[in-house]
Amino acid sequence: MTRMARVRIPMVVLPLCGLLLASAPDESRFSMEHAMALNTIGAVAVSPDGRWVASVVRGNDIVKNKPFSNLELASADGSVHRSLTSGMHTNAEPSWAPNSSELAFISDQGGINAVSVVSVTGGVPRALKTGKQAASRPRWSPDGKEIAYLAAEPLTEKESAADKIHADDQRTVDEVRHPVRLWTIAPGGDAKSKQLTSGPRQVDDY
What is the pTM of this model? Predict the structure, then answer.
């Protein structure tokens, strides 16, 4: 068993190493432009069945001075590698479904951090209706029927209107107007989220 583990690790990492070097400028001297163009590996998540490794690959758009990240998938034996997301958005925090068939993750493609789900076979990720507040920390329930996540309570219409009017004003904030709550949502695209926690204290992690 020890020998198999030592052989498999490089096979999974090698395809990812290619991603790290693919966008580096073709020049002989290493420069700041080289450093900015290098991709880096962030969070790594192994599927419950041990067959897949999902990773967050982070890069930088040098022209727009904007970081981005995408999800990459590799089989544990190194024979399969595919991109699950693409583009210049932030896609991060991968979380495996219990049956290892899908990944929940956080994406800002819709303009705000929201929970999305993508199949291990690829395809277009489906964005879930997690509200107008930024979501984080997606986690599947043991039966795979729900995805939990963190997000603040939504603003009221009056608060939203006031925020737009005073968007450029300096303001002193001495309290949390809308604490972060724990929510759940079914992985189907049309499901509505449910708030699980309330009260004066917010949820930082779970």
Answer: 0.78
